[in-house]
Amino acid sequence: MQKLFFKTAVTAAALCFSSMALAQQKYSVSGTVKDHKNGELLIGVTVKVNEDPSISVVANEYGFYSLSLPEGNYTLIVSYPGYRDFEYAIKVEQNTKVDLPLDQEDQKVGKIDEVVISGVKKNKNLTTAQMGTETLSIKNIEKLPVLFGEKDVMKTIQLLPGIKSNGEGSSGFSVRGGATDQNLILLDEAPVYNASHLLGFFSTFNSDALKDASIIKGNSPAQYGGRLSSVMDVKMKDGNNKDYNVNGGIGLISSRLSVEGPIQNEKSSFIVSGRRTYADLFLKTSDDYKDSKLYFYDLNLKANYQINENNRLYLSGYFGRDVLGLGDTFSTDWGNTTATLRWNSIINSKLFSNTSFIYSNYNYKISLKSNDNTFGLDSQIEDWNLKQDFTWFAGNKHSVRFGLQSIYHTITPSSASGTSVSSFPRNPRKSWENAVYINDDFKASDKFTVNYGLRLSTFSVLGGDTYNTYENGVITDSRFLEKGQFGKTYFNLEPRITANYRINEVSSVKAGYSRNTQNLHLLSNSSSGNPTDQWIGSSYSVKPEIADQISAGYSRNFNNNNYELNAEIYYKSMQNQIDFKNGAQISFDTAADVESELLYGKGRAYGLELIAKKKSGRLTGWISYTLSKTERKIDGINDNEWYNARMDKTHDISIVATYELNKKWSLSGLFLYSTGNAVTFPTAKYELNGQTIFQYGSRNADRMPSYHRMDLSATYEPESTKRFKGSWSFGIYNIYGRENAYTITFEDNPNNPGTTRAMQTSLFRWVPNVTYNFKF
């Protein structure tokens, strides 16, 4: 009897386990999501299962998605802002590859109440664990009023909370108390070391060539590294693989033109996009300035080729240059060159691979000539970069990113040459930066998601130069490293975690912690930056900068997700911060090492960020407010007490609105207000050898005047034909003529030499613009 009972129990258990195994067996449904009209891969598309809405996945930045489903019949619902929802019926019996096409919504047909201002899912702020992230819609950037009528992704991100402009017209920005160099700016994965044209009045990014742009404020996933404050990830269009298109714009001081189309229909495509200013053409009409040069140009190129259904190659490049000159007496030019060769491979239904070979170069040159005397100044930073990244859709609950990155840096310090100076050429300094990382986006339940990861980074000083060690500017040690010899190596572990708990259908709370390290440092003595600021790498004296950030947030949506409110607070602690010592003497025509003029200490930044959005309807826009503080404490500065960092601004407000007046006209406007930058003003003066010498007070204890302005613009889009579409954009920058301070200098009052007067320089009062845009 016992044997019979045992045999029956074993048989029942075997049948039970067999049944469970069959029930648990799942198949993969995977593929890519594309724009049906032009074949562009779409980033961040949501693919959801209608029969079980808890099963959903977001396509990665290369358009790849993967779901795990038991055998059965399903309907996939594919959604992406600006595109019609797409339903696809599928019978799952085995691993299946399904490429999903999406059609753009025609906003000029029928109702005009679906103008989305953010290129993300309407309730993504409630469902994703990622914090401090904003994704910009390139389509909607073009309607915002901007300086000189140039739509500009760099200017647009400065309208978001926690991101502050470094000055009037400047493309430089500060994120959560970080310096300009603490932002990692990527164009098709290639770092861009100076993302501005014409001293910051334009950015290097021609929006006609861009597909997607996002910024992460400190809480970046582990695949990003190398900077403390933020990651700005910009991706170029792939090019239309079905039809040829030409689009561009003609403005008052610049024009642009883009051409895209198939190389081999639906298999390969290209895009070429160029832009140039022509202010120098107006100078030629003046006898005094006819030999002057004042222009910039940039060129974006990209091509791709589909080897087979699982493998595709991409080659993209950027070339940009600024040229300023006055005849034969003065000239300066600077610019970036980047190139990315990328191989996308779908290894299997769950594993996606991206292999990238990346080149980046930034350099500047200055030359002066007076009679028989000449002077030249130049510097360069060059990178060779290998990146291997994998996306593993381990299941419906886990999306895992892991990989490695290796960068070979060559930094040529600023050095002078010429007949009027002693020539001290500086050796290029080489270094090797490496990282391995793993990151998991874990959907623990319908309400709770976690994004966590770990990054191990290393930075090695390489030979070919002499490296000194300084203590308060005094050499304590010196060593020469032979070429190819390894010197100091720094190791850093960088954990990151963010979590989101969805309280109900309309609200959620988030919290996160991240550590970031930075081994490349920009030495600048101005808040807005300029082309001759120089980069240095970590060395025996200069240690890696480290930032630990904790943050918490609350999100709530209203009126069927058409209104959105997000609030975040953060605290960031920073180590090994760099500043110039008092009275620092920076000279490029001596053998002096710039590291002898540096001091090191710690920093802190904390604040509150609020943004309220109206995302649909005829009136769309947002209001953002930032309340923040950022300080430094460095021995040898300000009596070793805390002092304001240059980028410290207490209050920062942006109001942005776009109104669809009718099918042809739309109006937009923005208002900005911010506390002035922290600066150091003189507190006393004395006379020495007939010259007035000013004595300055505590570091950054004073303030520039508050900054505010209002911009307005109107866009007219007449009826378009099947092949041609045109529009006019009219705008006024700084409509009420506020004379915002660009610089303030001090001089003896000529009417009373015993007193001092402050002289304010303002750049723009009213700047009108007219631009004609076209596409065919």
From TrEMBL:
Its main location: membrane. Transmembrane segments: none annotated. This is TonB-dependent receptor. It is a multi-pass membrane protein. It is found in: Cell outer membrane. It comes from Chryseobacterium pyrolae. Belongs to the TonB-dependent receptor family. The keyword DNA-binding does not apply. Residues 1-23 form the signal peptide. It comes from the Bacteria. Residues 296-735 form the TonB-dependent receptor-like beta-barrel domain. Pfam families: CarbopepD_reg_2 (PF13715), Plug (PF07715), TonB_dep_Rec_b-barrel (PF00593). Keywords: Cell outer membrane, Membrane, Receptor, Signal, TonB box, Transmembrane, Transmembrane beta strand, Transport. Residues 149-227 form the TonB-dependent receptor plug domain.
